Every structure is written in structure tokens, then in C-alpha cells.
Amino acid sequence: MEMKGERILPADRATVWSLLNDPQILRQCVPGCESLVATAEHSYDAVMTAAIGPVKARFKGKLSLADIEAPARYRLLFEGQSSQAGFARGEARIELQELAPEQTRLVYSATSQVGGKLAQIGGRLIDAAAAATADKFFEAFAGQLPARVSAVPEAAPPPAKAPSSGVWRWLLAFLRHLFARKA
User: Fold this and answer.
1) Quick one: residue 166, left, alpha or beta (phi over 0 = left, psi -120 to 50 = alpha)?
2) Which CATH number fits domain 2-179: 3.50.50.60, 3.90.226.10, 3.40.1180.10, 3.30.530.20?
């Protein structure tokens, strides 16, 4: 499965980078994420509950960051396993581009492989679940930005409605079916 996209976020690149690297913020924003615990620098154990079509399961997995060029880009490697649903693994490339002092473009591309019951689900169903998860993630993530941006002395513009496609869309969709989402 491949997914590409971008989102325009109403915050400076440093703020977006900081939140994208904050396990607590990510745990709150990723639908179905039960835990995200650092195991080493740039490595995490994750537990998620997800539902994709008829398959509902709890996934345990690992996330790690590689090729880090702060605050511009990194690669996110992920793998997850569920005794009920199978496995998922892949990688996502995330890049942040500063468009204006309070506006950042997040560009992503991701690839993944699934096995077990997940492989038996149609690609369209997985893609739709991934898109829905990404939308929920970005809505929650954008909700975290005003508090961070408003800490700056100047008044920040209200959050812009993020486009429905993007790097996180694929990543979240993949993570959703990989690590599961609570029904």
C-alpha cells in the first residue's frame, strides 16, 4: 500500500516539529492509541486498537525514527502485530516546509505491507480506513497547535482547515489498521 499527501498547519515549523516528536501529543492524537512509550532515543513501543471493516484487533508494535534532519524531515519505521488480525510494517517519510512565520506544510509519503486477516481485506477498505484515521489525527493535532502558537506574544491566526490528504493521512491509516482503533 502506498499513500502520499500534505497538510497545511497553522504554526511555525519548529512548533510542528516539536509536537510531532512529543510522544504524549502523538498518543493523544492518534485514534485508538493506548500507549506510546520510549524504549530508546527515537524508538517507541506502541499499543493500539483498530477496526478495519470486519477486522477489529489490538496491535502491539514498534516505531522508530531514522535519517533525522531537525526540524525539516525524518523517516518513521513501524511494525505491528496482532494475533487476531496479522501484521503490518512499513515506513513513512515526513518533511516540514515553512511557508510563512505561522504556516507549515507537512508532506508525507508512506509504504506498508500487511499480512494475515489484514491482507484479506480489500485495498479500498484499508485506504478508506487510513484516510479516516488521518483526518481524525490531523483534526486532533491541529487542535494542539493553538495553545502552542498562542504562547508567542503576537496573536496567532485561527487554525486553518487542513486538506484531507497528506502524509499523516496514510501514516495514520496504516497505524490505525496496524495498531488498531477502539470501536
Assistant:
1) left
2) 3.30.530.20
- For the stretch 130-144, pLDDT in tens is 778 877 888 888 889
Edge-first strand order for the sheet with 103-115 is: 2-9, 103-115, 86-100, 73-82, 55-69, 43-52, 33-40
**pLDDT tens digits, one per residue of 5-61:** 899 999 999 999 999 999 999 999 999 999 999 999 999 999 999 888 888 889 999
pTM: 0.76
* DSSP 8-state assignment for residue 155: P
Q: What are phi and psi of 19, to 5 degrees?
A: -70, -35
Q: H or E stretch including 171?
A: helix 167-179
**Ramachandran assignment for 28, one of left (phi > 0), alpha (psi -120 to 50 degrees), beta (any other):** alpha
Whole-number Å distance between alpha carbons of 65 and 36: 14
> Which amino acid, 145?
L
